[in-house]
Amino acid sequence: MQTSREPLLPDPVRRFAAWCVVLLLAAGVAAVFIWLCVEFKTAVTPVLLAILGTALLGPLYRRLLRMKVRKGLAAALTVVAVLVVVGGATYIVVVALIDTGDQIVASLRQAASDIAEHLGAAGTSLDDLAKNAEKLLREFGGTAASGVISGLSVVGQALATAVLALLLIFFFLKDSDRAADILRSLAPRATGDLVEAMARRAFEAVEGFMRGTTLVALVDAVLIGIGLVVLDVPGAVGLAALVFVTAYIPYLGAFLSGAIAVLVALADRGFVIALWVLGIVLAVQVIEGNVLQPMVQSRTVQMHPAVVMLAITAGASVAGILGMLLAVPLTAAATGILGELRTRYGTPSGTPSGAD
Predict the structure, then answer these.
(1) Conformational region of residue 88, where left means phi above 0, alpha means psi within -120 to 50, and beta covers everything else
(2) Chain centroid to CA 67
(3) Is the pTM of this model over 0.70?
(4) CB neighbourhood size of 135 (10 A)
(5) Which of 11, 109, 240, 332 fits a disulfide with 130 by CB distance 3.0 to 4.6 angstroms?
(6) What angle do CA 52, 162, 93 make, to 5 degrees?
(7) What pLDDT was estimated at residue 209?
């Protein structure tokens, strides 16, 4: 007598269970990876910054190589260019913010007081928030940087991170032609081509993001800065510098810097000038969204704004301000890897999924 064995669970349930196992395993691997990065962020941070710097400076290095400059010298000249450009830009931004910081904070407090007068009791919280802005920023900064400091001063740790990142940029540029061979040596033989292709797509995505974001940040800062100077808004240079720095945090950075510029104009120049500043900020954002971003994203990985905002939120929860800055390029790299996998293993658009 032969008995037929029927599966304990129906086929849809078994498939659902299999997908749950896959998702749990993937989530577990991602959680362990993030935990390791947080635990070793003193070493991970310079590596990530060096990758971003290498992606941004790759075109300059390749141009020097085409000019028959030796690899070591070309990498060294590129690092020197970083020191000159980034150091000079940082000096200008810091000096501008220091010179006009008190004026900007005073204008923000005045704007909060004006809003409180018009809103009555509802605006009192705005005034209190403005008066305690320095304390809030200090506490937030301490929370975000507490894990990075590791017993050292903030300045010393920042300098050590910058020096290590510059050294890594030098070696990443100098040995970039060996990166593919190193990846192939680490990957199993059958997956060598796939690992190399995914790495190239990820780096190309980060490279496109860094170059595009820098271009967008520069254009935004110049246009908004010119508008603030023409309208005689106090602290125009510092506000333009703030626009440039915050542009590396997509969407959220533009909103914060624009709101600060409008509030400063409202406090010192009145309601009409504040409306003009708001119009300039919105016009620049329209130019960015309809002209600059399509040009930039056409050469790199396109990401939905919802994905960007979720990445920024997750980065802020993991590593504070630094996480917000690194979240989007890392998401761009992940998107590039997924795009490569979809290109290799996805179903062709013209082929029905059930075709024989």
Answers:
(1) alpha
(2) 32
(3) no
(4) 9
(5) 109
(6) 85
(7) 81
How far does CA 185 lie from the centroid of its chain? Answer: 31
Query: For residues 88 and 246, what is the distance between their CA atoms, to the nearest angstrom?
Result: 18
Backbone φ and ψ of 168, nearest 5°:
-65, -35
Those residues of the chain that have pLDDT short of 50 are 1, 121-124, 126, 136-137, 140-141, 143-152, 349, 353-356
Supply 155's token pair.
């300045």
344 contact partners, CB below 8 Å, separation of at least 6: 194, 197
Residue type, 155: V
* Distance in angstroms (rounded) separating the CA atoms of residues 267 and 239: 14
Structure tokens at 65: 């190589």
- Six token digits for residue 109: 């407090």
Residue labelled with tokens 């037929």: 4
Residues 22-67: tens digit of each pLDDT: 899 988 988 888 788 778 878 888 888 888 888 888 888 888 888 8
- Using CA atoms, how far apart are residues 268 and 303, in angstroms rounded to an integer? 39
Alpha helices by DSSP H, the chain: 11-39, 41-66, 71-119, 124-131, 133-149, 154-174, 179-186, 192-230, 236-246, 252-269, 271-287, 293-297, 305-345
Taking CA atoms, 63 is separated from 53, 129, 164, 344, in Å, by: 16, 50, 24, 32
Q: Which residues contact residue 123 at a Cβ distance below 8 angstroms, ignoring those fewer than 6 apart?
A: 112, 115, 116, 117
Side-chain half-sphere exposure of 55, counting CA atoms within 13 A: 27
CA dist., res. 148 & res. 37, Å (int): 12
**What percent of the chain lies above the pLDDT cut of 90?**
2
User: Tokens at residue 165, please?
Assistant: 């990142």
pLDDT in tens, 274-301: 889 889 988 988 887 777 766 665 555 5
Q: What does the pLDDT read at residue 97?
A: 61
